[in-house]
Amino acid sequence: MPASGPGARVTMLQRRSLMSLAAGAALAIPSLARPALSQGAASRALRFVPQANLANFDPIWGTQYVVRNAGMMVWDTLYGVDAKFAPQRQMVDSEEVSGDGLTWTFKLRSGLRFHDGSPVLAKDAVASLNRWAVRDPMGQMIRAIQNELVVVDDNTFRWSLKQPYPKMLLALAKTNSPCSFVMPERIAKTDPFQQITEFVGSGPFRFVREEWVPGARAVFAKFDGYVPRDEAPDWMAGGKRVMVDRVEWVVMPDPATAAAALQNGEVDWWENPIADLVPVLRRSRNLNVDIADPLGNVGSFRMNHLHKPFSDPRARRAVLMALSQEDYMRALVGDETDLFKLMPSFFTPGTPLYTEQGGEILKGERNYDGAKRLLQEAGYTGEPITLLVAQDQPITKAFGDVSADLLKRIGMNVDFVATDWGTVGSRRASKAPPSQGGWHIFHTWHAGADCINPASYTAMRANGDQAWFGWPNNSAVEAARDSWFAAPDLAAEKAAVAEMNRLAMEDALWGPTGFFMSYQAWRKNVEGVVKAPIPFFWNVTKS
Amino acid sequence: MFAYIIRRILATIPVMAVVALFVFSLLYLAPGDPAAVIAGDQATPADVERIRAGLGLDRPFLVRFGEWTWNIIRGDLGVSIFTNLPVSRMIAQRIEPTLSLMVITLFLAVIIAVPMGVVAAWKSGGWIDRAVMAFAVLGFSVPVFVVGYVLAYYFALGLDWFPVQGYTPISQGFGPWLSNLVLPAVALSSAYIALIARITRATMLEVLQQDYIRTARAKGAGQRTILFLHALKNAAVPIVTVIGIGVALLIGGAVITESVFAIPGLGRLTIDAILRRDYPVIQGVVLLFSFVYVLVNLLIDLSYTLFDPRIRY
């Protein structure tokens, strides 16, 4: 095992130097000495292994979580949620809402600067919100009822609506991608379906573009001009104080390599170690291993409502009657029972709106005979069921294997399409019959942070052609969703979500395959790592 | 000879054109959609469609192929769909690690495998021969990534002699550069050493039966002179051919090795591009690999003249 501690690190470097020198002597090459890297320099750079490659860097154009996470470092938001999911002011100094709830007036904090030194003005916020609102589900709702979004003065802007929108602050504070990041006006005017070409941020870190090697490395340097809030840090809210000079994202496609690099002190923090390697990491006395995101993920068994047999709700209910969440979860995390929960619900367990209303179909003994009968009633006669399984994603691969077994148990004829995620991403958009390039079932998972309420929970939309892949069509579910948006208080929100869950279960909108979490691991000389849906780099120190 | 070189270089143009057409068509027909990857899992089908249109991926095959070909003729490999960076710049960022890995691997393979093969042939049937052949079978049988993990476990995690992963540009010092490449190069060269050692042994065995070797012995030439001056030089043509063919093997092996050791080279760039369906990058990298392969073949053909004076172009 590698030596530990700062002193040991020096020893290691010296040994490597010796090795290099020895090799150099053998090859008759003048010098192989390693460059001196002072302890100070090493401790001022935090080396982080992200969940995926940062292949592009426009968090509005591309809404992958890894882009959102990097975006969170570079661009600040008007509001940010805290650990209680409550929106808190971030770039905004104060807001005022008219008595009828139709006019929101926002005043920006003073002293805010972009990374090019220019001040953050109301026109920048307005342009950024305009771009964000085209892509974000909540933003689209606001746009649909918008009168105007205008600059009042350099620090003030006003959003006037045709009808009240009580979730305004949540929309501007949420963690779901895309977040309402504030960019300079000239950049924010870019078409939201085109990628930006300049990365001038407003957040606590500056993106070091010249050091960006997509697929390998991304560097974020501390932005000295950033003015943090005075409040204590709390997720996206509070004072974002940067305690290191730079954060280096080191992309490692191979989990075993990342584990070894972390043990060896070549990186400091790994966002998502796979469950298989966690016992190895736990054995290292230099590492901390803990749950990464308490909001975890919700697994999804997505059915296509356009084609038989799943165009009939009885066939979809048949699947839910037989679906064992425990099978899916154990296929994914093995015996790490702390990492999963069974959830007869569509919403994230442990969050304020969690409900099991209507979830009986997922509880208790699995009813294979009942499922077979229901399938017969639905007119299923043994036609092949096209199950798309992305083999390059451990989660979807595990889910796909369990589903193949489940479908066979209830008498379905499975056409198991083993493919990659890129192909699933493309094929799932096809509305063609499964025999002509379409599909019946695919698996994915949703970040638990996206499933705490209906705000950005696109998988819960049931508006037919406009809905997410699978295209459920259920006006009652949509009405329950609307009632959540209009809910004046928590009690009303809970009632709306409970009704939505009941209706969605009744219609078997899709199949939740369970709630699961993952670990993160970091070296013990790193402090300030928090459990959150996003890795937050402010207030993290490295000794 | 100069005219021959020019002819061969000109002959690469139709080869590259066929490769370009083949790769473009294959990617066009292959399933997958970069717009879906960019949009993210929560995006609606309408969002994906608009991003696809924004990228120009909804245009007909011929229009896209024509535009791409015209750009290639002008020396422009295009722009990555994802990073918005020129493909040529992305390749330039990645070429040094891959080139370094391949050069060190080739160097290691040749200096180890050729003497191994020569000695095995010389001591044919003895324990040295059997040991070399056993090593060759092992080298072929054990996948590169397994060798990589074992090396990393013992020499990086255990003995702490080398880093587990990463790459240091040579501009930051020869020592760090070499330190990062030793383990990946050893891992990658294992199969290559096995291949060259076997071919060298087989060819040397044949050559050592020739009359001129007997003559050399009769003239009192020393064993070393016979093996390395008379026999090896005459066995060189097939060995050099295999080394050349092995470059293709190295390109494939580099993809795996770069992933295991987190080296930011062309292999990883290719894999990432394929998984994301970053068409311009895939096309650019495949064209580059094809060109390198054609060039290596040309160099091998030319090298024959050094070893066999009967060959003239």
Walk me through what this model shows.
The complex is a heterodimer of chains A (543) and B (313). In chain A, the strands form five sheets. A seven-stranded mixed beta sheet of chain A has the order 8-9-10-1-11-19-12. Chain A has a six-stranded mixed beta sheet with strand order 14-18-13-17-15-16, with helices on both faces. A four-stranded antiparallel beta sheet of chain A has the order 4-5-7-6. In chain A, a hairpin with a 2-residue loop joins strand 6 and strand 7. The longest helix of chain A is centred in the N-terminal third of the chain and has 22 residues. Helix content of chain A is 31%, strand content 19%. By secondary structure, chain A is of the alpha+beta class. Chain B has a domain of 215 residues: Orthogonal Bundle (MetI-like fold), CATH 1.10.3720.10. Chain B is globular, with a radius of gyration of 24 Å. Chains A and B meet through helix 1, helix 8 and helix 14 of A and helix 2, helix 3, helix 5, helix 7 and helix 8 of B.
If you average the pLDDT of chain A, what whole number results? 91
Query: Termini of chain A, distance in Å?
Result: 21 Å
Helix content of chain A: 25-40%
What is the helix fraction of residues of chain B, given as a range?
over 70%
Oligomer type = heterodimer
CATH structural class of the domain at 93-307 in chain B? Mainly Alpha
CATH superfamily of the domain at 93-307 in chain B: MetI-like
Given helix and strand content, the structural type of chain A is: alpha+beta
Largest sheet of chain B: none
The unreliable regions of chain B are none
One letter per element, helices H and strands E, the order of chain B comes to HHHHHHHHHHHH
Q: Which structural class matches the secondary elements of chain B? A: mainly alpha
Shape of chain A: globular
| Main sheet record of chain A | 7 strands, mixed
From the 3D coordinates, which CATH architecture of the domain at 93-307 in chain B would you assign?
Orthogonal Bundle
Total beta-strand segments of chain B = 0
Membrane topology (chain B): Multi-pass membrane protein
Keywords (chain B): Cell membrane, Membrane, Transmembrane, Transmembrane helix, Transport
Domain ABC transmembrane type-1 (chain B): 95-300
InterPro entries (chain B): BPD_transp_1_N (IPR045621), MetI-like (IPR000515), MetI-like_sf (IPR035906)
